[in-house]
Give the backbone structure.
Amino acid sequence: MNRKNGLRDVGTFLFFAGPSLVAFFLVVLIPFLFGLYLTFTNWSVQAGSGKFVGLSNYIKVFHDNAYWTQLWFTLRYVFYTVILANVGGFFLGLVLSRKIRGQSFIRGGFFIPNLIGGLVLGYLWQILFSRVLPYLGNLYGWELFQSSWLTQTDRAFWALVIVNAWQLMGYLMVIYIAGFTSIPTDVLEAADIDGAGGFAKIARIMLPLSIRAIVVCLFISISRSFLTYDLNLALTNGGPFGSTEMATYYIVQKAFLSNDYGVGQAEAIVLFVIVATITLTQSITLKKMEVEA
């Protein structure tokens, strides 16, 4: 009887989880393992083959100054994007977790950018930065927008940060709303009775009780920002003068345009290790700060 129940449980598991497991193995695990193998070869995309070269590709990575320059640029980009997206998402979630007129419509409006692909979003904002804002800047005398941000190395960086943070903000907002609505109302009412102000409630009650939501939002925003490619391609294409090439952009150029697939894949593995280390560290650190209501 127990054996039949066990087989039934296994069958139920495979029925529901089987397609997802197959997709995970085919789309994620197997390509990752194959990519890891390629880092130890001088694989040629054109020839479709390569010889085993040991750790030479990783040695080349650590001597590739251009890669580390783009990686440093990416770290700066991720830092500012994560802060801007999470602060914006937090306060949007705070406002829209209350009952206001047209709440669902407003939430949907802020969430829509997350549904737009990076390429489309990049081309839309490219028009905005290159044509619309300069036109308005010259029309009304706004010096900040009189020339295209995408032609200036410092402002092109901020253009990337603003667009990606704007896209992420609505998605993070939904997670923060879920975190806020899970806070017991009696705790907030007790704070009101004790005379706690709005800032005190946010800092001492809502933030500590929303650690789970914060952990998830930071994990998502960090990982997605590190892996930005399509937006980088469509908005700046690495320009001006290669000043906005991010690590993923550089890796693709190295692997496919330079036909140096082994080194490019090794650079991707190094980036994966860095992203995994940062995201896991922040998750473990913030989890220790979690409190129960």
